Amino acid sequence: MKLKKKKIEDRSVSIDDGKYTPDPESMIQVFDLTRVYQMGEVEVRALDGVNMKINEGEFVSVMGPSGSGKTTLLNMIGALDNASSGAVFVNGINVANMDDEQQTNLRLRNIGFIFQFYNLVPVLTAYENVELPMVFAEEPEESRRKKALKFLELVGLEKQMDHLPAELSGGEQQRVAIARSLANGPALVIADEPTGELDTKMGREIVKILQDLNKELNQTILMVTHDPAIGKLAERLLRMRDGKIVDEIKL
């Protein structure tokens, strides 16, 4: 499902995206992106002039040491945090120019998130966890049921649909999280250390699912990982250090 371009009221007072022109082929394009945090009297530049582009249908991994800016970059692209300067375009729309409601709607309908610690609701079954984003999006009940079952089957968990998270292994919980990330037909899936809590074998199985989604559904995926073996399973690898992208490798 493509992210449809929307007419968005420009509420930005600090970022002039008139000087930034995104490539029409890009799903994500970042220009001169900075994020500065004030820690008492110390200024921390978590991102320091990042430029990058990811086209629709790409599977890209981001690696770097702790504190290099990987998760901060994902938060900027996923509209979870606001830039200090620069621009972040998702399918031609500058996320920085969205108000809070528009950013919430973008996250709900157009970006799927997969987290290291799964972030499943413990009192809901696997089926209900996958269904939940569609409830928030006011999807009709019958449509929700069809999609939830489809995505659980896609990750091989249709037989565990009535299990609570505590009744599932770590790998199974992450599969539920992947199914949930697809619920509203996102243009982009963002995965932050999706294998970080899994053993090597299960981690590779999870990435294999992501690879299949990328190839079979043309799903755009941006993944952060600390594991070189996992990072090399993407199509392209970006390396970060000190808030900058310092290397790019076509795999």
The low-confidence parts are: 1-16
How far do the termini sit from each other? 26 Å
Q: CATH homologous superfamily of the domain at 56-70 and 99-250, by name?
A: P-loop containing nucleotide triphosphate hydrolases
Can you give the mean pLDDT? 90
Number of strands: 10
Fold-level CATH name of the domain at 56-70 and 99-250: Rossmann fold
Main sheet characteristics: 6 strands, mixed
The largest beta-sheet arranges its strands as 6-7-8-3-9-10
Instruction: Assign an overall shape.
Output: globular
SSE order: EEEHEEHEHHHEHEHEE
What is the SS-derived class?
Answer: alpha/beta
CATH class of the domain at 56-70 and 99-250: Alpha Beta
Write down the Rg. Answer: 18 Å
Entry keywords:
disordered N terminus; alpha/beta; 251 residues; single chain; globular; Rossmann fold; 6-stranded mixed β-sheet; 7 helices; 27% strand; 31% helix
Question: Could you explain the architecture of this structure?
Answer:
This protein has 251 residues and is an alpha/beta fold. The protein has a domain at 56-70 and 99-250: P-loop containing nucleotide triphosphate hydrolases (Rossmann fold, 3-Layer(aba) Sandwich), CATH 3.40.50.300. The chain has helices at 70-77, 100-110, 126-136, 141-154, 170-181, 200-217, 228-231, and strands at residues 26-39, 42-55, 59-63, 85-90, 93-94, 111-114, 188-192, 220-224, 236-241, 244-250. The chain has a six-stranded mixed β-sheet. A four-stranded antiparallel β-sheet has the order 2-1-4-5. The longest helix has 18 residues, at 200-217. The protein is globular, with a radius of gyration of 18 Å. Residues 1-16 have low confidence and may be disordered.
